[in-house]
Specification:
Strand content: 5-15%
Distance between the termini: 58 Å
Bound molecules: adenosine-5'-diphosphate, magnesium ion
Low-confidence stretches: 623-629
Number of domains: 2
Strand order of the largest sheet: 7-8-9-4-10-11-13-12
Shape: elongated
């Protein structure tokens, strides 16, 4: 259903679907429609014009009813085209999967055979096959299918090679599955969409090729009609009685156009990347649509990056996902601000919005500002953003394997990060890259610089990610859960590394995490985020000692502590709200055991509670919570 809806959005494809639906329905119904017999000749009645009595589309050179022949011919042509596509897809995909899955010599032998087939012009090959087998519709079908096998085999082999080395295939092998089972249950489901797409875009082509062979007299034999042979027979009367050629010609045109439009639509609808957004590429910077621009505020002070009332939404069809709903954050040089919250609370979107890195569509920044040294970055011209990205403000992402290019050595990638912003020579950039690798404590930096990302361990890759963020000596680093995928020892090393860097270089760090332990180690301030808003903000020590918002309290109760004996870990019941249907009032109220009626109406403001602290709650906790100091 989802698929049909997506298809219907593409008007041309939908038109193609309707036309093909009608053609196929008519073709299926042809035997029971009240048509004149298609093969009975009546030479007294030849070349009747269109709309003559008893023959709506006229008659051909032997007096046969053209409408009837057209319907039977369409039935045959469409059936042969689809059959050829199905055969070519099945055999081609089978060959491709086997070659791609087994690789090595099997792959070589099969693919060189396919290459030999591809070396002949396909129509010549089809003619040769029909010549060898003898004319006839069946043989034309075989020929058309055979010349299209290489196309499928090559396509599917490429996809299979990629899949055959994925972890889930290895896992299936380890679980003791036989190859045949792995191919059928693991590989095939992944290539079927590609097969369907390739088929939908080639059926029209195959109908044309079959018609071509029939036109040359090598396909369907008289008196049997298919669209190609009808055209062939009408050729001699092209000038005197053009309608005999126009009728089958127009039908071929309509069918092939409809199938091609439909095929394009199917391809777009099956591509999951196109499901959420329009058919467009993301813009270089997030779309900005603000009514008002907040000023820097009174307590901007000496802050380097000052985010004010930032609002970012995702507009998907007619839904609005309020991922970030008015966030204020500030960091000064040498400061580390922790941004903490459950998964999905809007931390990453906040961080990405600052530099306009949220993909648009569907992302839109609908309000707020982000002042870097007093200059607003939201909606700044792309040139300015580009100059700052990775130079003055840089990011460290969670998954370093996904952010490093697999085909370049890490040394080259670091050098590139420098050379994008600074006109230094290759040699200088490389020397600097090695220094950077040393500064993030990669052993044997000189030789490691020549390693590819897949040759490093996860912790090393993350350190390369940090080195890259440091490459241009930035003022601000935004680290988005950089240690979540790492084990605790590596995590501790990376945290102390970041800590040293900010003290030595006066870096401002925004550290995103869902782990209070990490915040306690690294950050001097922390902002707690829930459903796109800051619910509590203040110095880390104070908040750890006396959390004010019930959410903060519950979040801290989820952290296991070593050396405190066994204790029930208090998971928070329920789930965070969906950001496209936020409740009125406090978003946490439905999960909060302190909630009362007033919490569920109206907007609740972020109120300054004590010095340097603020909380968005009507009944904040004040009781100090015992935390080992
Ligand atoms: P986290 O705090 O875990 O980093 P995110 O900032 O990534 O959370 O996501 C915040 C919210 O925005 C989530 O509810 C997520 O579902 C939503 N979101 C993120 N990207 C998109 C998108 N492309 N389309 C719709 N919603 C999105
Ligand atoms: Mg995130």
């Amino acid at each position: 259903m989802d698929f049909l809806r997506l298809l219907a959005r593409n008007r041309l494809a939908f038109a193609g679907l309707i036309v093909m639906g009608v053609v196929v329905a008519l073709a299926i119904l042809t035997p029971i429609l009240p048509l004149a017999p298609p093969d009975v000749t009546n030479t007294a009645n030849r070349f009747q014009p269109v709309l003559s009595e008893g023959a709506w589309l006229g008659t051909d050179h032997l007096g046969r009813d053209l409408l009837s022949r057209l319907m039977w011919g369409t039935r045959l042509s469409v059936a042969v085209g689809f059959a050829a596509a199905l055969i070519a897809a099945t055999l081609g995909a089978g060959i491709g999967i086997i070659a791609g899955f087994y690789g090595g010599r099997t792959d070589n032998i099969i693919m060189r055979g396919i290459d030999m087939l591809m070396a002949f012009p396909y129509i010549l090959l089809a003619l040769a096959i029909v010549a060898a087998l003898g004319p006839g519709l069946m043989n034309a079908l075989i020929a058309v299918a055979a010349v299209n096998i290489p196309f499928f085999a090559r396509n599917i082999r490429g996809i299979t090679v990629g899949i055959a080395h994925k972890e889930f295939v290895d896992a299936a092998r380890l679980s003791g599955m036989k190859d045949a089972r792995i191919i059928l249950s693991e590989v095939l489901p992944n290539v079927i969409p590609v097969i369907v797409i390739a088929m939908s875009t080639t059926v029209g082509w195959m109908i044309l090729e079959t018609a071509g062979l029939s036109f040359l007299g090598l396909g369907s034999q008289p008196p049997q009609a298919d669209l190609g042979s009808m055209l062939g027979e009408a050729r001699s009367a092209l000038i005197t009685n053009p309608h005999t050629s126009v009728v089958p010609g127009a039908m071929i045109l309509v069918i092939v156009m409809a199938i091609n439009l439909l095929g394009d639509g199917v391809r777009d609808a099956l591509d999951p990347r196109l499901k959420s957004g329009a058919l467009s590429r993301p813009m270089p910077a997030t779309k900005v649509d603000r009514k008002t621009i907040p000023d820097q505020g009174e307590n901007a002070g000496d802050s380097l990056l000052n985010i004010r009332a930032l609002e970012t939404q995702f507009h998907v069809k007619n839904r609005v996902y309020r991922a970030v709903g008015g966030v204020d954050l500030q960091v000064a040089p040498g400061q580390c601000l922790g941004l903490i919250g459950e998964s999905g609370s809007g931390k990453s979107v906040t961080a990405l919005s600052v530099m306009g890195l949220v993909a648009s569509p569907p992302g839109v920044i609908t309000g707020g500002a982000a002042y870097y040294k007093g200059e607003d970055l939201i909606g700044a011209p792309y040139q300015i953003l580009r100059a700052l990205r990775g130079d003055r403000i840089s990011y460290i992402f969670q998954d370093p394997l996904a952010t490093l290019h697999p085909l370049y050595t890490i040394g080259d990638q670091l050098a590139e990060a420098i050379r994008v912003h600074h006109p230094v020579s290759r040699g200088e950039a490389r020397a600097r890259a090695i220094d950077l690798l040393k500064s993030v404590r990669i052993p044997n930096a000189e030789s490691r610089a020549n390693s590819y990302p897949h040759e490093l361990s996860g912790g090393m890759r993350q350190r390369v990610g940090i080195a890259m963020a440091l490459a241009n000596d930035p003022d601000v680093i935004i680290a988005d859960e950089p240690t979540t995928a790492l084990d605790v020892t590596v995590q501790a090393q990376i945290l102390s590394l970041l800590n040293d860097l900010r003290r030595e270089r006066g870096l401002a760090i925004i550290f995103i995490t869902h782990d209070f332990g990490v915040v306690a180690q690294l950050c001097d301030h922390v902002a707690v985020m829930y459903a796109g808003r800051i619910v509590e903000h203040g110095p880390t020590d104070d908040i750890l000692r006396t959390p004010a918002h019930p959410y903060t309290t519950r979040l801290m109760a989820c952290v296991p502590e070593l050396g405190q004996g066994r204790r029930e870990l208090a998971a928070i019941p329920g789930l965070p709200p969906l950001v496209d249907q936020l409740p009125a009032g406090c978003a946490f109220a439905p999960r909060c055991d302190m909630a009362h009626a007033a919490c569920k109406t109206g907007d609740i403001a972020l109120v300054a509670a004590q010095t340097g602290r603020a909380v968005r709650c009507l009944t904040p906790h004040n009781t100090p919570v015992e935390v080992g100091t």
